[in-house]
Amino acid sequence: TLVGGVMGMNQTQTRKLMAFSSIAHMGWLITALSLNPKLATMTFMIYITMTTTMFLILTPMMTKTIPDLGLTLPWHPLLTLTTMLSLLSLGGLPPLSGFMPKWIILNELVSNDLMPLATLLALASLPSLYFYTRMTYTSTLTSPPNTSTTKLKWRFKPHLAKSLTFLTPLTVMLLPLTPTLSYTM
């Protein structure tokens, strides 16, 4: 978790950031696997949902770097909101879907008297939260320069995947369903 977070802090390319994000989430997944295989399965399913949503957003936008997010997304307000919520969910902020697996894993660690490991995991996730917040800030709160007098936009409107409409609500609102998921597994 710490390796993926620290390595991702200095990156500006979105593909590399998502790769380091996967490394960071693997730390949580391996910890969950050592505690409870059902918890690891639930964590993996939620992570796959969040990551697939981000890839479905980033791929058609053709964004290669973080500054590209600030140039592309202002033309798509709904996609900007979706990107913000998906990134914050990947960071594990409550009340979004990415928070609950981390909370359950930390709870399991504390109940098994593994407080140092729980503290280490919680602190090791802060660098990842930093680069997710940086991506969120760039994509939502910065606006592109508007110096062109032409009416033609230099970016084409992307063709978004239809599955994005199904995965986006799951990325954002899976938190209330987590107790149901954990009992059925």
The amount of beta strand, in percent, is under 5%
| Helix-residue proportion | over 70%
Return the average pLDDT rounded to an integer: 80
State Rg: 17 Å
Q: Please identify the structural class as seen in this structure.
A: mainly alpha
Runs in which pLDDT lies below 50 for 5 or more consecutive residues are: none
DSSP summary: helix tally: 10
Number of domains: 1
Subcellular location: Mitochondrion inner membrane
Enzyme class: translocase
Organism: Lygodactylus sp. 2 aff. tuberosus A MV-2021
Main location: mitochondrion
State the main characteristics.
185 residues, globular, respiratory chain, mitochondrion inner membrane, mainly alpha, NADH-ubiquinone oxidoreductase chain 2, electron transport, single chain
Structure commentary:
- Helix 2 (14-35) packs antiparallel against helix 3 (37-61), helix 3 (37-61) packs across helix 9 (164-173) and helix 6 runs antiparallel to helix 7 (115-124).
- The mean pLDDT is 80.
- The two termini are 25 Å apart.
- The longest helix has 25 residues, at 37-61.
- By secondary structure, the protein is mostly helical.
- The chain has helices at residues 2-8, 14-35, 37-61, 66-72, 77-91, 99-111, 115-124, 126-141, 164-173, 178-184.
- The chain has one domain (2-143, 157-184).
How is this structure best summarized?
By secondary structure, this protein is mainly α. The chain is 71% helix and 0% strand.
Lay out the secondary structure.
Elements: H1 2-8, H2 14-35, H3 37-61, H4 66-72, H5 77-91, H6 99-111, H7 115-124, H8 126-141, H9 164-173, H10 178-184
